[in-house]
Amino acid sequence: MLKSVRVSDYMPDLLIRFTPDMNIFSAIDQMLEHKISGAPVVDAKGELIGILSQRDCLQNVIKGSFYDDSADTVAHYMTSEVDTILSDEDVVSVAQKMIRSNRRRFPVMDDTGHLVGMITLADILRVIRDFAEHRN
Q1: Which region holds residue 44: left if phi is over 0, alpha if psi is between -120 and 50, else beta?
Q2: 105-109 and 115-120: which strand pairing?
Q3: How confident is the model at residue 12 (pLDDT cuts 50, 70, 90)?
Q4: What is the pLDDT of residues 41-78, one digit of tens each?
Q5: What is the pTM of this model?
Q6: CA quadruple 86, 87, 92, 95: dihedral positive or negative?
Q7: Structurally, what CATH architecture does the domain formed by 2-134 represent?
Q8: Which residues contact 94 (CB under 8 A, 6 or more apart)?
C-alpha cells in the first residue's frame, strides 16, 4: 500500500526558491527562517539550474570562501548537478534513490520538465509515520 503513495501527495505546498544572483547570507537567512535544509536555484525563466543546501554553505565556510568578497552569491555555493524526480513517482522508489545517492532532497518536476516542488527525507519519513498510524 505504501508503494502507491505519490510524491505529489506529500511534497510541501510552499516552495522556497533561490536565484543565482541572490546574496548567500539572504539565502541562509531564508533557510533558517523557513526551517529548511536546502532549496532549488532557478534562473530568470524559473528553470532549475542548481540546488543550495546547508551542507553547501558549510563546506564553503570550511574552505574559507565566506570571507572572499567576490563569492557572495548563491551561484558561487550551489550544486549545479542536480538529480530530480517526477511528481508521480512513488515514495518507496524515491526513498531508495535517497539511500543509494546519499541525498536528503530532490527537486520535483512535472511531466513537462517544470519545477513543481521539493521532497525531502523528512517528507518521506512523514509518509512512513502516517502509514504506520493508519495500520494500528
Answers
A1: alpha
A2: antiparallel
A3: confident
A4: 999 999 999 999 999 988 877 776 556 666 689 999 99
A5: 0.85
A6: positive
A7: Roll (3.10)
A8: 7, 85, 106, 119, 124
Instruction: For residue 6, give the nearest of 113, 132, 123 by alpha carbon.
Output: 123
Q: Are strands 85-86 and 115-120 parallel, antiparallel or unpaired?
A: unpaired
Report the C-alpha gap between 113 and 42 in whole angstroms.
Answer: 13
Task: Say whether 136 sits in a helix, a strand or coil.
Answer: coil
CB within 8 A of 40, min separation 6: which ones?
15, 17, 18, 48, 50, 51, 82, 107, 115, 118
Q: Where are the domains of the chain?
A: 2-134
Tell me what percent of the residues of the chain surpass a pLDDT of 70.
89
CB 61 within 8 A of CB 115: no
Lowest mean pLDDT segment, chosen from 6-10, 47-51, 103-107, 113-117:
6-10
